[in-house]
Amino acid sequence: MLIIRRSLILGLCLLAQSVSAQIDYSLIASRIIETYETSLVTLPLSRQEHFSLRMYRTTGHGRYKPAIQLMADHFQNNLRKNVANIEDQIYIKHYLAKLKADQKDTAKGRLRRESLSQGNQVIFFTNGIVYPLVKLQELNISLPEKDHAIKILRKIDFKKELLKPSILRAWAAPTVNWIFWLYQLGVVDLRNDLKLAFAKAFPMDGSLEGDDFVNQLYGLTHFIIAASEYYQSYVEPESYQWILDFFEKNQAKILTCGNPDIIAEVGVNFLIAKQYDHPLVGDTRNIVAKYFDQSHGIILAKGMSSNMEKAEHRNVLAYLLFRLPMPLYKGPDLEHSTSRFRMSL
Length: 345
What we know:
This protein is 65% helix and 1% strand. The protein has 18 helices and two strands. It has helices at residues 2-20, 25-39, 45-59, 65-84, 89-101, 107-117, 122-138, 146-153, 158-162, 165-170, 172-184, 191-201, 210-227, 241-249, 251-255, 260-272, 279-289, 308-323, and strands spanning 292-293, 298-299. Helix 5 (89-101) packs antiparallel against helix 6 (107-117) and helix 7 packs across helix 11 (172-184). The radius of gyration is 20 Å and the shape is globular.
């Protein structure tokens, strides 16, 4: 079995090397950006902001600010509502019920619906309060409601409520984000506790398969992405060597999983952790590049939609994979920016 695994890894690496000389990653990245910038206004605001924020943080170009500003307006309005009702049990119940109804009919979606059925109110505080708070903080937008929200958050036992195995399995990547964001907001530092809890929820011996393995990978990649404050800075690899080692030990399974989203995220993790010359960077680039569709100008995948909205996540990740390393930019700083399209409460 070990010989077969090594042979598979060697074969993938040799294939990657042979393909590498024929692929212009920069050209593919440019095509992806051109495709999305041409049709960006046709996408939902959340996808516009997702794309624009990552483009701003890797280019510093001001043309990406409008979508970020509009989404910031949305975050402000939602945050005001949620903070105003932060101790209203009926409001929280309705919030969680809507979030449950919004979950997709997938393995992960079913786990999340089950989690929400169990009355885990902590999800309201993390998704409805922590998430918009940190987004606005990163954009240097302050709200008078922030101090009250932080005071309430500091009363919650997030270690007990958020680091349950059932929560981690249902909300792997979001939970990692929430823990890092609680630290950013100065509420509580549970990053070491998260590492231990994550290893209990997801065995680190590489034994998971299928959706469970992909779910584990998404959670692991978000340790490094969240530590970078979502592409605002590079991180030192020492603190996350345990994650990089896991990726390296399980590279054959990662590279053959058929999911360009997670393959790209793994490669981006090495780049964010300053491992620019690691073999997995080249391997992931070569695998993801094979999914590029010339006629659509985007990364497609077997069984995955060519719909621009649904494909945005994997394509902006592919762009990062093909273009990093490059200078990263904070923010943007929207303290003195205003939108002509204020959303009403």
